[in-house]
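Exercise 3.2. Students should predict the tertiary structure of the chain below and write it as structure tokens, then compare their answer with the key that follows.

Predict this chain's 3D structure.
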Amino acid sequence: QRRGDLPAGSATVPIFEGSRVFMVEIQALTVPAKGAMTRVFSDKVDSARVSRVAAVLEKRIGLRFSDQDIYINVAGGIRLREPAIDLALALALYSARTDIPAHKNEAFIGELSLAGEIRPVRRLRPLLKTAQSLGFTKLYVPSAAGDGDDLERDMQGVSRVENLAETIKQVFASANA
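Answer key:
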């Protein structure tokens, strides 16, 4: 329901809340740390998860977070626990740190390994169907289907990604050009 472009630091992910699928926006803000210790402020996403995703971005992409305080918010106030949010969280952090916004009608689904690989998630098909029915035209999903999800390889608007570096190149290619 946002008018205009997404601000830097935002990424959208479909999640299950009970048996229903909701689209949620993860918002990230990074600022230089005021002291010697950096901090993560997040009450809707586990701060250990945020730190882990930031560490993967730092190691695998070379984007420095070790001198930044990180603030994470979830629009609508839903507490996010699913591993499927990792990719959206990583894109929100990348966007916040580089000040380059993602595109409005994109959504990101996938668990992130420490090696920067995008891992399969459970019940992918209903997540995709809900995102597409709500007007999301570009969906980034793990290249390997999980939990018996045999999605058509040519499903319109779905981009299968294997790792975080590849995903960042695809998402931010037009902004970096």
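Discussion points: Helices lie at 47-61, 86-98, 124-133, 164-176. The longest helix spans residues 47-61.
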